[in-house]
Amino acid sequence: MPVDFLRADPSGNNTILVLSPVSEALKAAVCEKLMTLHNSWAEQLGFVSSSGEYDAVLEMSGGEFCGNASLSLSSYITELRGLDCGEVTLKVSGVSNPVRSFIQKKDSYYLGRIEMPAPEELHPYEIELFGAIREGFLLRFPGICHIILDSAYYDSEKTAEPEFIDFLDKKARELKTEALGLIFFDSENTSILPLVFVRDVRTLFLEKSCASGTAALATYLAFKNGSFSGDVFQEGGVLRAEASFSDGVLKSLYIENKIRLFEKESLEL
Hints:
Elements: E1 2-10, E2 15-18, H1 24-34, H2 37-40, E3 44-49, E4 56-60, H3 67-81, E5 85-92, E6 99-105, E7 110-115, E8 121-129, E9 132-141, E10 144-150, H4 156-159, H5 162-175, E11 179-186, E12 191-198, E13 203-206, H6 211-225, E14 227-234, E15 237-246, E16 249-261, E17 265-268
Parallel strand pairs: 2-3, 4-5, 10-11
Antiparallel strand pairs: 1-2, 1-16, 1-17, 3-4, 5-6, 6-7, 7-16, 8-9, 9-10, 11-12, 12-13, 14-15, 15-16
């Protein structure tokens, strides 16, 4: 069975988009095979299908919502249309409302601006991490929960231990979320280390960039200060975020990122 797929690089959050129809029974095997390609290049994978109501449907392998994958697919649709700019509306796993992106073609990449879903819940949150109680801030988005933590709490050795995945799996089930992000935030330079666990496929990545993690941070800072507009620095690049509150209600939340697309590939499975 030939499977067509596209690789995309949204600031290092390497993504595979499966373009061929794949039955539910085969999705796990296809995901496992493609995620090992190019020396396990990808951090995440999504399945693309057509829709009469939307420009496309994107189902992430773990059922989570992913902003960077949404921007990647929207950039590809803009490329297929032969346009220098355009608006794309997707149906994406993990969220009930349509996801809109605004895409501009640049010399060597696409610049995408995505309207992110609003959090359903946000509040201070204590988490027992590496043997100590840590003060954080939880934001529950459709399809994923993020916990903002001080970057001083990050421990690369302990996050690499096998039992840490079991800890995150238990925490994700406790929070009843498809995916869980620990967003380690350095307030001095507005940078984050986004550690993201996806429950159904039991993957854990220190992502080089994370759109939903960036959205979580922007929402958190706007919640504290009324608004936020600025760059959020990550290993793979810089994402721009905008968020604003009015009378305690989130009024807007946008993320911008650069997306580089590779040539479409095919693999016989």
